[in-house]
Amino acid sequence: MCGRFSQAYTWDEIVAFSQPLTVPADRPNLRARYNIAPTTEVDIIVLTEAGRELRKARWGLIPGWHKGGLKDFKLATFNARVETVETSGTFKHAYKSRRCIIPASGFFEWTGEKKDRVPHFFSAADGDLLAFAGLYERWRNPETGEESTTCTMIVREANAWTAQYHDRMPCMLLKQDFDAWLDGSGGMELLKQPPRDLREWIVSKRVNKAGEGDDDPTTVEPFKDDLF
Question: Quick check: pTM over 0.85?
């Protein structure tokens, strides 16, 4: 699973990375976030008639068929397992027609005992952004009538190097596969190909608390003893 990640990039960086985004007349201000937890709002890239657009979505997919309120949906859906994403009642419809890319500057995993977990930060070895394969849904809250966009991140079995930290990792798309993923012409072969080369370092244990240091770039810097 992947339960925490980072989105920290400038507008020019995300436009270039997305090859490119459809640029609006007024470029929005992007808030750098370093310790994103499930159920919070994240950036996703979707394909529309206008091209690739950057949208906001709640991290934790709620299928369109859910008729209850937000509190009535009890499933943890911030991750979708690649092994079952095509057949799961929660994800299969989005897999067929509502795909997205979740851009990331890195993600976290932990080692050690539960009471004294050590956080590790992973980012692309070449310093570029990462493209996590995702799905999105539109869901209308029957209590408020408000429509929300929600999303999930697809995860796979970890490769040999990442497995020393966790047995799962995000499915990462290569830039040349963005079109095939978003338009649905590509499938499992994109999700199961070798992931990007990554680098890793230990960061401050304050990220063990969801949302802690979310606006602080030092959150993802290599730890120093005085940070603990």
Answer: yes
